[in-house]
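Known limitations

Structure tokens in this collection are predictions and should be treated as such. Users comparing against experimental data should check residue numbering before alignment. To illustrate the layout, the record for (wild Malaysian banana) hypothetical protein is reproduced below. The input appears on top and the generated tokens appear beneath it.
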Amino acid sequence: MDLFKLYEPMGGDHFNIFAAGLKTADRVITVSRGYAWELTTSEGGWGLHEIINENNWKFRGIVNGIDTVDWNPELDLHLQSDGYRNYSIETLQAGKPQCKAALQKELGLPVREDVPLIGFIGRLDHQKGVDLIAGAMPWIVGQDLQLVMLGTGRADLEEMLRKFDREHHNKVRAWVGFSVKMAHRITAGADVLLMPSRFEPCGLNQLYAMKYGTVPVVHAVGGLRDTVIPFDPFRERAGSGGRSTGRRPTS
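Generated tokens:
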């Protein structure tokens, strides 16, 4: 261990298995090019950044893929009841509004096609940037839009979602817990999916959203930066979503 300097880089005499793997592997794969770069920084490497930089030549980032049978609006079993419907790119203009109306009805929101419906699906944790949504809540409830949040995690953040639901029940719905069915239905029914993660090695929800014709709006970190191309209003068919580089709610 002395020869290969495989002691715990954060201090102490513990053997670090990940450091050993980095030094002895022929190639190292992570889940996106952006995250591969972030691992070389002191903030992203968590004490291993020097070892990672020494072995950077063997690093590659390969973006996650999705199950195109399970996550497919044409086949999705969760869209075959309660007023939802399956749709394809050819039937998107009829199918997606129907799913939106069904979601609004199921959650008890006013059924309005003209109001933007924003969704959030994720673990309620500091990493996922839920507090950034909380910081923007005064602005959100002042707009003519609706917000649906699905997640479970820290008890204080779960209670925060319930509080938003109680105080802004005509615009905000909180589903505390996790439901595969509701995750699929939010992805299909929402106009926009928020992902304000502080760090995200790759992420899957933005890929699901794009598959369902839902616009992902993400924090430009890790794989979110790699997979979501910013919309350009001056170019035809340019971009797949929105990206923010700020960490303030107003960003």
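For this record: The beta strands are 28-30, 59-61, 117-121, 146-151, 172-176, 192-195, 215-219, 242-244. The mean pLDDT is 90. Please report discrepancies through the issue tracker.
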